[in-house]
Design goal:
Pfam families: PALP. Belongs to the cysteine synthase/cystathionine beta-synthase family. Keywords: Amino-acid biosynthesis, Cysteine biosynthesis, Pyridoxal phosphate, Transferase. This is Tryptophan synthase beta chain-like PALP domain-containing protein. There is one protein chain. The strands form 2 sheets. The protein has a 4-stranded parallel beta sheet with strand order 3-2-1-4, sandwiched between helices. The protein contains 14 helices and 8 strands. By secondary structure, the chain is an alpha/beta fold. 45% of the residues lie in helices and 12% in strands. The protein folds into 3 domains: 98 residues, Rossmann fold, CATH 3.40.50.1100; 167 residues, Rossmann fold (3-Layer(aba) Sandwich); 34 residues, no CATH class. Helix 8 crosses helix 9. Helix 3 links the parallel strand 2 and strand 3.
Length: 328
Amino acid sequence: MLRDAEEKGLLVRGQPGTVIEATAGNTGIGLALAANSMGYRCIIVIPETQTEEKKAAIRQAGAKLIEVPAVPYRNPNNYVRVCSRMVENLRQQGHHVFFGQQFDNTANKKAHVYSTGPEIWEQTGGAVDSFCCAMGTGGTLSGVAEYLKSKNESIHIGLTDPKGAMLYRWFSEGRLAASGSSITEGIGQARVTGNMVGLKPDSVHEVDDSEALSCLWNLLNEEGLSLGLSSGINVAGAMRMARMRPAGSVIVTILCDTAQRYERKMFDEEYLISQGLPPRPVPVQNIEESDLSSALEEAFASDVEVKTALAEYEKAVPEELMNGRPLP
């Protein structure tokens, strides 16, 4: 999106410019880092309900973070709409700002037409026959679908939607309606964005948080993959697709980020239980706690052993090094 803005003259390398974006997902982190590398400043407007880990990552990337109350898109104070009006106000004040508009800026979708789609095709040797993922802005699914369909029209495209989002019913019934809720972040949409225009998924799947978390716990405990909440939705959708596709199908999905960005949600047992969700089943260790405790206790050297070892070390090390002077 930033390169596209430069090509259109909306940002000029070497001149002061500020990138502003409304995001509840990982785009804010990516934009902040990319803006740094291109010499721009960055301001991110985010719903206050997003995880503290994600907010910290945005701040660490050097962006200014503005938190606003989380309200539906139909509310004039939705974070996207507040950000849009703020951008206009700054422009009227004479500031040079670029509003990323990731939801409706089709440079988002094009990035996946030119990069993610070809990467999937090349890495599977053209064998991919199914692709599915959830939608936040819609750029990933729409862009990948456009590219893969251009290579093979029979490739099956699936949308996986979390509970509480409206796209499942939009694509299956032609109406924007939601049922339930989800603790996931950055996916699930209550409107058809500019990046979704023209998308016609071959199948749609609605996944609840319990199913997604079950996938995440299995991936962590059995595969050694520590993945974020949206990845659980995506993997659950891919597994559903696998049950409906022919044996031997090559199904691809997206693993967006890691569990570390959602630690206070995913690994907070009290929080999960309050949401009616299953906490992580902790793997049972194969060494008894008593054996581990005694082995650890015996592993520590005594005070006498520590004193003797340090004295011997001082004798063995040249005096020049002990006093911080370089050797001749």
